[in-house]
Amino acid sequence: MKPARSAPPLPSFLLLLLIALTPALAVSTDVLVVGGAIITVDPHVPQAQAMLVQNDRIIAVGARADLERAYPNARRHDLHGRTVMPGVIDSHAHSYQLGQDRRKAVLNGTRTVDEMVARLKSFYPHPAPGEWLVGAGWDEGMWASLGYPDRAALDRAFPRNPVRLDSLHGFAGFYNGRALEIAGIDAETPNPVVGQILRRPDGKPTGVLLTLAQQLVNSRVPVESVAEMKKNIIAGLTALAKVGVTSVHEAGIPRERVVAFRELAAAGQLPVRVYGMLDGNDAELMTEWFARGPLIDPQAWLTIRAIKIYYDGSLGSRTALLAEPYADHPEAAHMTERIAPELVASLAERGLARGFQLATHAIGDEGNNRILNLYGTALAARPTTDHRWRIEHAQVVLPDYYARAATLGVISSMQSSHAVGDSRWAEDRLGPTRIRYAYAWRRVLDAGGRLLINSDLPGEPWEPMQTLYFAVTRKPLAGGTAVGWYADQALRVDEALGAMTLAGAHAAFQEQQLGSLTPGKFADFIELDRDPRTIPSDDLKSIRVLRTWVAGKIVHRNL
User: What is each CA distance from 147 to 7, 332, 534, in whole angstroms?
Assistant: First the structure.
């Protein structure tokens, strides 16, 4: 008798098909998130017990028993009492500079030039002759109150090296004599059309350059390669992912940096999602992009459809445009219009025609007033109900700003850290009346306007739980009082969370994809060690982000 012959093995493709069609054998890729509080930021279903993630999407949210019954094969992800919320959308940030800062001496908190010198020497212990020494973080607002620094100590410490020290918010630069020499700046150099060279009594430059005058020196600093730019981007975005940011609105991307972002996106190397705002003050760049139109990624990894316009200066450096003189030292003010109104009007007209969103930097009340006027004129000529134009900062405004912005549908994109950081000197600049219409988030909402809360990193403390704490308390991280600064303008926790998530998605035309834990949206969420809704507001700043998920994958864990 011949032995029975075994059946031939199935071809591999048939075996895979059989597994897929046999529920008992199939390995589920579904992840069922359970065991903690789930804050959805979805107004229809504000909280849930469970959430099902399939690949990169949220499939269902609801009661744990219902989802366990509906998806018995899903892998459980037990929160063990932790809290889940949508990933934070930092809707105004400079992640590139955050990554770049790894190569700069940190000058935050310095109050003397000698302190700056000491930190530079620590960061650059053995600089090669001619090497540029770069630092960042000295607070131009505080220094403008104390009196801007002079370069004498920098010259003595670094006679053979050019020194470039960027201010906290970027509206002033501090340079030594070698850097000024390379740029050809001396007592005879006139101020640029926009910007000021601060001078000693004898006319020689002090080393401080305001607003666009910085470019006289910065343009002489060696340009980074695209490879180095990519390193900076990756470093910045990775740092953001670690603290719970899953999407960033990158403000003011210049031409060369656009290339680096696009190459990283094409290679699938962006750690978090990026919504790009082009540098609208670069006329050549804008001509190029108006000809090609927006770049919209259906997967939302890199979308470029906004134009960031830098209009006026900053309150701290007294370069912001105010309707009335500065309350303190008006003679020291240098109110600045960084781009002509007719150019803003042209950008607005072409932006509407080509589908681009405008996002304009305006700090002073007159600056904000002029931008609202320009927006209103452009929108009247080409009416649209869904432009989602923005004013970045909207820091000091006239009393009628709130109603006008709401009527025009203009989004106020504001930074909670700025109110707290500027509280040391802002009222000195403005006086007791104007300060009531500054950093006023509650007024935006009460008027029916749309509000974003973001960081403008890497200036003030920028981690999302710090941003949330500032928005709810209006207190500093340490040494604060029992009541926050103008606490009537503080937000509730739910309002602040919405302004940091779903509002950011809406401001990028991405509310159908991001911003809430809603079925059909991308699975971008974070796990927190505590529920921000149930703890004392003073404890918000110490909430820890334990995991960050982007597109259904864990991109950072801190357990």
Answer: 90, 10, 44
What structural domains and CATH numbers belong to the chain?
Answer: 12-81+517-559 (2.30.40.10), 97-218 (3.10.310.70)
User: Three-class SS of residue 149?
Assistant: coil
Q: Cβ–Cβ contacts within 10 Å for residue 388, how many?
A: 18
Is pLDDT of 23 > 80? no
Give the other-Cβ count within 10 Å of 326's Cβ. 20
- What's the mean pLDDT in 240-245? 98
CB 458 within 8 A of CB 97: yes
Residue 220 C-beta-side C-alpha neighbours within 13 Å: 19
> What one-letter code names the amino acid at 340?
A
DSSP state of 223: P
Token duo for residue 81: 């009492």
- Residue with the two structure tokens 């707290």: 420
DSSP string across 88-121:
EEEEEE-HHHHHHGGGSEE-TT--SHHHHHHHHH
Grade residue 28 by pLDDT with cuts at 50, 70 and 90.
Answer: low
pLDDT band at 11 (very low <50, low <70, confident <90, very high): very low
Helical (H) or strand (E) element with 367: helix 365-381
Work out the number of other CB atoms within 10 angstroms of the CB of residue 26. Answer: 12
What would the mean pLDDT of 528-543 be, rounded to a whole number? 98
pTM for the model: 0.87
